[in-house]
Write a structure and sequence with these properties.
heterodimer, A: mainly alpha, ABC transporter involved in vitamin B12 uptake, BtuC, two-stranded antiparallel sheet, 13 helices, 2 strands, B: about 260 residues, alpha/beta, Rossmann fold, about 25% strand
Chain lengths: ~325, ~260
């Protein structure tokens, strides 16, 4: 049985909605019915669990979108959202903010004004810009990848230095590094939603050019694709999605890498379908991981990043073995 | 097919990574004729084709329909000239039909779904290369030859007035090589300026016009049956060819 793109999208949306209801009812206090008359519980439902669940779905969708863009743009199935230094930049931004929190009253005021999400977002975007400068624009894909690696390493060591100097920074950083959906509020949801509303249409608008690019850069150009413009738009969409997600949820592992592969494993898709289905898949994935994180050892809570890393890692391992077997049978 | 525009290349020199690859030369593929570019390895044949398709920067001028290359909007240009590269890789996940439909990209408005004309062009191109039967199979599941026929259909689906092909016979078995020759001849008869870089001399000798290249220069330009052309071939291939006539056709054997 084959399902069209629309059928799959509807199923994934329904899955997301189902998980959202589950996300409302499951918390550290255990199972709670939606229709409770208890004022306190209603407040928990709508002010804490609802934005957290919605935010988790949106962040997963953004990461998956960034991953799908990266894999298409760099023609590399291992590309992930953090490829251009986004994660290292976000970490450094946060570390710098936390570091200045205790230096002087003036710097504390400034640091508090920028805030955790603000500093992570600025750091993430700045890191991608640095990567672009080092790669001297978007002309060469390989140079972009290398510059991304270099920026990641250098900024990572900067973060390590700051956390060594000030151990309090390390403690606060920990949950960020592991990825957490615990800080998501309605404001975060708005930011994430706005980012998805911007980056999603841009990516979908470029989907046919990405298909052409899969035949090689020369062929794409011969078909009238303006490569420089395409790369610029997609790098912008990718880094906006990643920066928004990372700033709100920290370094969530594997969702951006795995979601596009999951979509591909259901059947061959054009980029138009992939860029639509991957975010829906990523959203469902991260929301499911979030629900599991709240539920598995309740009333304690697991960092959601650990669950996505475990799930994503084992899925990739399984995919690798399955691919290997089918390739072996074919050749 | 869009109105055929004449392509004209006047090249003063082309360097790749600082190393000169092409020396001064001129080339203008004629509409309605099939031109084959031949020469030993490293003669600059593929580079010439890339320069001709505006894919490489060089010192000189490239004009299409009398208008400088850079003055053309990218999409209009892409409708006028179709290029089939060597080892077009990737696209493993796309179905054969999706790949051929990419040839219609320059004809489609942004985000618009494929029109009836697009579907007709794709079907015709895939029928011409006998690849219609596996239109729903992903490229990854096709053999080298089947894949090449899909990519060829992709180039045909553009329906451009200039068709440039770099080693289009890669992986094709003899019957499909013959089919390809008929295809090139039919395209030329329809008014298309067909240019192909070929390693198979026996196929190239069936073209209307032969460009013989060596060491970054065009050393000869003439009809495939001319004695002068055969002499030029002998010259660039170190006199190690045996050029014979059999059943009205010229064949080149290694000697």
């Amino acid at each position: 049985m084959t399902l069209g793109t629309r059928g799959r999208a509807a199923l994934l949306l329904a899955l997301g909605a189902g998980l959202f209801v589950l996300g409302l009812t499951i918390g550290s206090t255990g199972w709670s019915p939606l229709t409770s008359a208890d004022e306190g519980l209603r407040q928990i439902l709508w002010d804490i669990r609802a934005p957290r669940s919605l935010g988790a779905w949106l962040a997963g969708a953004l990461l998956a979108l960034a991953g799908a863009i990266g894999q298409g743009l760099f023609r590399n199935p291992l590309a992930d959202p953090y490829l251009l230094g986004s994660s290292a930049g976000a970490s450094l931004g946060l570390a710098v903010m936390l570091f200045f929190l205790g230096v002087s009253p003036a710097s504390t005021v400034l640091a508090l004004r920028v805030g955790m999400t603000g500093s992570a977002f600025i750091g993430s975007v700045a890191a991608v810009l640095l990567t672009l400068v080092l790669a001297r624009g978007v002309e060469q894909t390989l140079r972009l990848l290398l510059a991304g690696v270099i920026v990641g390493v250098v900024l990572g060591s900067g973060t390590a230095l700051l956390t060594l100097i000030n151990l309090d920074v390390m403690r606060t950083m920990q949950s960020f590094m592991l990825g957490s959906t615990g800080f998501l509020g309605w404001n975060s949801v708005l930011v994430l939603l706005a980012s998805l509303a911007l980056a999603g249409p841009v990516a979908l608008g470029c989907s046919r050019s990405l298909d052409a690019l899969s035949l090689g850069e020369a062929t794409a150009r011969s078909l009238g694709v303006r490569l420089a413009l395409l790369r610029l738009l997609l790098v912008a969409a990718m880094s906006l999605s990643t920066a928004a997600a990372v700033a709100q949820c920290g370094l969530i592992a594997f969702v951006g890498l795995v979601a596009p592969h999951l979509v591909r494993s259901w059947g061959n898709v054009t980029h138009g379908a992939l860029l639509l289905l991957a975010p829906l898949t990523g959203g469902a994935l991260l929301l499911a991981a979030d629900v599991a994180a709240r539920w598995l050892i309740a009333p304690q809570e697991l960092p959601v990043g650990i669950i996505t890393a475990l799930l994503g890692g084992s899925y990739l391992l399984w995919l690798m073995h399955r691919r290997h077997a089918s390739l072996g049978a074919k050749r | 097919m869009s109105a055929p525009h004449r392509l004209q290349l006047v090249l003063n020199g082309l360097a790749l990574d600082g190393r000169p690859v092409l020396w001064p030369l001129q080339f203008a593929p004629e509409p309605g004729r099939w031109t084959a570019v031949v020469g030993p390895n490293g003669a600059g044949k593929s580079t010439l084709l890339r320069a001709l398709s505006g894919l490489l920067p060089f010192d000189g001028q490239l004009t299409l329909g009398g208008r400088p290359w850079a003055a053309w909007p990218a999409r209009e240009r892409a409708r006028a000239l179709s290029w089939l590269g060597q080892n077009e890789g990737g696209a493993d996940e796309l179905s054969a039909l999706d790949v051929v439909m990419l040839g219609r990209l320059p004809h489609q408005a942004w985000l618009a779904p494929p029109s009836a004309a697009d579907h007709a062009a794709v079907q015709q191109a895939m029928a011409q290369t006998q690849s219609w039967d596996w239109r729903d199979r992903p490229l990854a599941q096709l053999s080298g030859g089947e894949r090449q026929r899909v990519l060829l259909a992709r180039a045909l689906a553009v329906q451009a007035g200039v068709l440039l092909m770099d080693e289009p016979l890669a992986h094709l078995d003899p019957p499909h090589q013959s089919d390809w020759v008929r295809l090139a001849q039919a395209q030329a008869r329809a008014g298309v300026a067909v240019v192909s870089v070929l390693h198979e001399l026996n196929i190239a000798l069936q073209a209307d016009r032969l460009i013989v290249m060596a060491q970054g220069r065009i050393v000869h330009d003439g009809a495939a049956g001319d004695a002068a052309t055969h002499a030029a071939l002998q010259e660039v291939f170190q006199h190690r060819l045996l050029i014979l006539q059999a059943e009205q056709r010229w064949i080149a054997l290694n000697a």
